[in-house]
Amino acid sequence: MAAPLIFIDGDQGTTGLLIHERLRGQIDRQSLQLLTLPADARKDAKRRAEAINACDIAILCLPDAAAREAAASIVNPDVRVIDASSAHRTTPGWTYGFPEMSEGQAQRVAAASRVTNPGCYPTGAIGLLGPLVRAGLVPVDYPVSIHAVSGYSGGGRAAVEAYEGPDAANALPFQVYGLGLAHKHAPEIQQYAGLTQRPMFVPAYGAYRQGIALTVPLELRLLAPGVDAARLHACLADHYAGARHVEVMPLRASSALSHLNPQALNGTNDMHLGVFANDHGQVLLTAVFDNLGKGASGAAVQNLELMLGAA
């Protein structure tokens, strides 16, 4: 049987290049074949449509509009898709590519023909909130606030150029953005975390290339009676028990930390979750992971392996 043919549409962008890099070993062992287009054909709609209809699985690493156009060009019913853009994340008929999100989600990804990769920030927010909301420990209408700091690679090629190009000396050391409170990740977080109200989401970039530290504060007085940090932690630990790529820090380990390093898991597909608390009824949920790993390219490769029956 021929090795599966994978087409990365947008393989010269940050996400596409890293997917290619992560698949290199499998390509070298000939367990995968990679279909690429020459530089002069990458914006040729006809050539791209021919390529996407000739592959077994297409991975779309494109801007949203181009991803929608690419998906619409598929006429071969055997072609399966992983969309790394945000174009289809809340679109009916697409399977959300966060295998650890809920029971059976990995199997749904494995069987799907259309998979939409999670956003980088939503991976952390949904990873923390989803199990707690489904367990009834966090109310569905809780006034959720999320703050996250990402490496500048999360801003794509333009941000990388700003921090690594000829004008890098003028790049801001830290910037909070999305001040209009209309970030495109908010509906995605609301839907898959199971919230009835739009979360307050405030993102930021730091002057480092990759890695995310995301936090969600909770007030115990707004939760059900008897819910405390230990119960929240136990719920998360139980949900992710045995998970290959998501680890919940023991409460004792969390209490010994004085800071979070957003770059701690760079180069991996892992995510570490934590629960911190004080004596004043306040809890902080945390997630640390690589925005180009579990938040993008690593997640796409994990989903690809599931779809190929290799994970």
TrEMBL record:
It catalyses: N-acetyl-L-glutamate 5-semialdehyde + phosphate + NADP(+) = N-acetyl-L-glutamyl 5-phosphate + NADPH + H(+). The keyword NADP applies. Its EC number is 1.2.1.38. It is found in: Cytoplasm. GO terms for molecular function: N-acetyl-gamma-glutamyl-phosphate reductase activity. Residues 5-109 form the Semialdehyde dehydrogenase NAD-binding domain. It holds the Pfam family Semialdhyde_dhC_1. The active site is at residue 120. Keywords: Amino-acid biosynthesis, Arginine biosynthesis, Cytoplasm, NADP, Oxidoreductase. Pathway: Amino-acid biosynthesis; L-arginine biosynthesis; N(2)-acetyl-L-ornithine from L-glutamate: step 3/4. It is an enzyme of class 1 (oxidoreductase). Gene3D superfamilies: Dihydrodipicolinate Reductase, domain 2, NAD(P)-binding Rossmann-like Domain. HAMAP family: ArgC_type2. Catalyzes the NADPH-dependent reduction of N-acetyl-5-glutamyl phosphate to yield N-acetyl-L-glutamate 5-semialdehyde. PANTHER family: N-ACETYL-GAMMA-GLUTAMYL-PHOSPHATE REDUCTASE, CHLOROPLASTIC-RELATED, N-ACETYL-GAMMA-GLUTAMYL-PHOSPHATE REDUCTASE, CHLOROPLASTIC-RELATED-RELATED. Belongs to the NAGSA dehydrogenase family. Type 2 subfamily. This is N-acetyl-gamma-glutamyl-phosphate reductase. It comes from Ralstonia flaminis. The lineage of its organism: Bacteria, Pseudomonadati, Pseudomonadota, Betaproteobacteria, Burkholderiales. The gene is argC_1.
